[in-house]
Design a protein that fits this description.
binds 5'-O-[(R)-(carboxyoxy)(hydroxy)phosphoryl]adenosine; 334 residues; 2 domains; Nucleotidyltransferase, domain 5; 10 helices; globular; five-stranded mixed β-sheet
């Protein structure tokens, strides 16, 4: 079954063609350079750029897959959660395409597709497993009991991990998206130089990052007022360490209490080199299986949407022409 999938929830216009877990093509038009000028994604600009790019990106994905539109068996699209105007571009394009090809339309939840990035070209991962989903807009810990069955056991009570990276990076004068930049320049020299608080949260498996974010912004503000320089690579490494401390302690507390032997990590922040290395070490210590997406599938892309769509379709999740985009929706909506 060849599925053409569309992703437009934020600032990447992406289209892929997949067959089960195999990716036949994956085309992405990124808007990052344009949003950099503003230090973050401007929703109105994002919608406009999706509208301009989507037809060409779709044609490219079909061509790269070595097929024609008549070979497509279903159209899948990210319908929630995300920037509403951006999502609407993909949803409406997908509805028109499915109608014109007379094929089913499959709605895909964005966070489910991030988790599915772990299935791409990899037959080893099968539910049940525990997943740490860390992106720019969401941070959750969930049990994946089946391909379309999820139970949230924890999540951030304030900012997402990626948001904490991006906002503290901006305060350090680093360009958007700050998480990637911080990861590149962070040097592990001296964590005592900037004694940042260790984030805490009340819920057993919950996360909190806003206190850390505020502490970093205040520290920079105080240094600036005194005319003192900031050692940005060291501060970046300290923030990264603190974020990883929180993610790792809660995740492995859940692993131990719930008895999981398989862990997956997903979302844009799963590209973080420190997080990957430390989680790998923890899993090795416990003799656990760890799955992390290939780096090219950590951020937003349509291949992960196509792979999740295969399972959504198998579970009977097919939409009609009344499908609408939704800005917020939990992963266990259905
Ligand atoms: O999953 P994603 O592409 O978009 C959302 O669905 O939110 O995640 C984007 C987030 C941004 O906050 C970005 O800074 C962060 O992922 N990110 C990273 C790294 N690469 C991307 N954060 C830390 N280290 C990285 N290497």
């Amino acid at each position: 079954m060849k599925i053409l999938s569309i992703e437009s929830s934020c600032d990447e216009t992406a289209v892929a063609v997949c067959e089960g877990r195999r990716v036949l093509s994956s085309a992405v038009a990124t808007q990052v350079e344009e949003h950099k000028i503003y230090g973050g994604v401007v929703p109105e600009i994002a919608s406009r750029r999706h509208t301009e790019a989507i037809s060409a990106v779709c044609d490219k994905a079909v061509k790269d897959a070595g097929i024609t539109y008549s070979d497509i068996d279903a159209v899948a699209v990210t319908f929630a959660p995300g920037l509403i105007g951006a999502l609407l571009v993909g949803v409406n394009f997908a509805k028109g395409l499915a109608l014109s090809l007379s094929v089913p339309l499959i709605p895909v939840h964005h966070l489910r597709s991030h988790i599915a990035a772990n299935y791409i070209d990899n037959d080893a991962l099968k539910p049940p497993f525990l997943c740490l989903m860390v992106s720019g807009g969401n941070t959750i810990l969930c049990e994946v009991s089946d391909y379309t069955s999820f139970k949230i056991i924890g999540g951030t009570t304030d900012d997402a991990a990626g948001e904490c990276f991006d906002k503290t990076a901006r305060a350090m004068g680093l360009s958007y998206p700050g998480g990637i930049t911080m990861d590149k320049i962070a040097t592990k020299s001296d964590f005592t130089k900037y004694p940042l608080p260790v984030p805490k949260s009340a819920g057993e498996y919950d996360f909190s990052f806003s206190g850390l974010k505020t502490a970093v912004i205040n520290l920079i503000h105080n240094k600036n007022q005194k005319g003192e320089d900031i050692d940005v690579p060291v501060l970046a490494a300290t923030v990264r360490e603190r974020v990883c401390d929180m993610l790792i302690s809660k995740t492995f507390s859940a692993v131990e209490n719930l008895g999981y032997k398989t862990l997956a990590v997903a979302g844009g922040v799963s590209a973080n080199s420190e997080l990957r290395a430390r989680i790998e070490e923890e899993c090795k210590k416990r003799g656990m299986e760890l799955f992390v997406p290939q780096l090219k599938y950590c951020g937003d892309n349509a291949a992960m949407v196509g792979v999740q769509a295969f399972y959504e379709h198998a579970s009977g999740n097919v939409a009609g022409s009344g499908l609408n985009a939704t800005a917020t929706l939990p992963i266990d909506y259905r």
